[in-house]
Amino acid sequence: MTAALSIATAVVMLSCIVTAAVALNVTTLPFDEGFCHLFGDDNLVRSPDGRSARLILNRYSGSGFISNDLYDHGFFSASIKLPSDYTAGVVVAFYTSNGDIFEKTHDELDFEFLGNTRGREWRIQTNVYGNGSTSRGREERYVLPFDPTVEAHRYSILWTSDFIIFYIDDTPIREVVRSDAMGGDYPSKPMSVYATIWDGSTWATGNGKYKVNYKYAPFVSDFSDLVLRGCRVDPIQQPDSARRCAEANEDLLTADFAVMTPKKRAAMRRFRERYMTYAFCYDTNRYPLTFPDCDVIPSEQSRFFEWGETKYPRERRRSRRQIRKPPRAGDPKREADV
């Protein structure tokens, strides 16, 4: 690659990053201003400037952090860089939940990153649970159009009283619109924001076939560009908080990341067509009666088996030329889906 081409490529990448940041129009905050240690002792490492954190999984423990406050709706975001090499059984999660308060009727919104064997991709799962509806899980899974172990990418959850949107960088990948049909399955109670890394050997890779191999430990995930935009609430004084948060929720509904323009909808449709590998709406084996809030699209449904998995799995493969090209020092290996 020539020097001119390298510079041009760098400019284009920088332009894309700036465009994404401007499109989302978010303000980041220092770690200690919004979060605190959850578990893992020394396996949570704050950066020297206090604006990011590193989560580590080793044979002794995983680790995690939690927001200092509960939020009555909001926009929550982090740039995340995932562990590389052999990561089977490893689970990294960025999510909202109130399970510590409502053990049997908890709400939850998840980005779950599921590790894989060497040479295969990380997979991402999004979950939507309301009022303890884990037996009616609204899960979707995807692969990614990039290697999430090379550099950080932004993952965001927008949760309003009317809809939920999951973003990767500035691309919406999933929208859940509240409806009467969902009933209590729509998350409605105040939630905290979490980030964790842990051993999911029993299920995360190949339904538990491939376990975490601590020969490759430590497994490290970096979290930066932290965003908590929402109405903080007191779990004891919820009625007062609800009145105070009504105005904040209206402000959230009019933010640029809450407006689904035709361009955003087209980008979401393209992403789902190319990278969605499991859809609960098309899993008729698990759910013989389709969820009333599912928007079943016949052309999309035809791409999935009756157990919800795609008929056309995608893998990011390097070309023969790329494979033969010697890697640069420090380049991590690429992943692909199981």
Walk me through what this model shows.
This protein is α+β, with helices and mostly antiparallel strands and about 350 residues long. It is about 20% helix and about 30% strand. The chain has 6 helices and 16 strands. The strands form 2 sheets. Strands 1-4-13-6-7-8-9-15-16 form a 9-stranded antiparallel beta sheet. It is globular, with a radius of gyration of 20 Å. The two termini are about 30 Å apart.
Primary descriptors:
16 strands, nine-stranded antiparallel beta sheet, disordered N terminus, alpha+beta, 19% helix
Secondary structure topology:
Blueprint: H1 3-24, H2 31-34, E1 35-39, E2 44-46, E3 53-57, E4 63-67, E5 70-81, E6 90-97, E7 108-114, E8 123-129, E9 140-142, E10 153-159, E11 163-168, E12 171-177, E13 192-199, E14 219-233, H3 238-253, H4 262-275, E15 276-283, H5 298-301, E16 307-309, H6 320-324
Extract low-pLDDT stretches.
Answer: 1-22, 317-338
Strand order, sheet with most strands = 1-4-13-6-7-8-9-15-16
For the sheet with most strands, the description reads: 9 strands, antiparallel
Instruction: Please report the total strand number as a whole number.
Output: 16
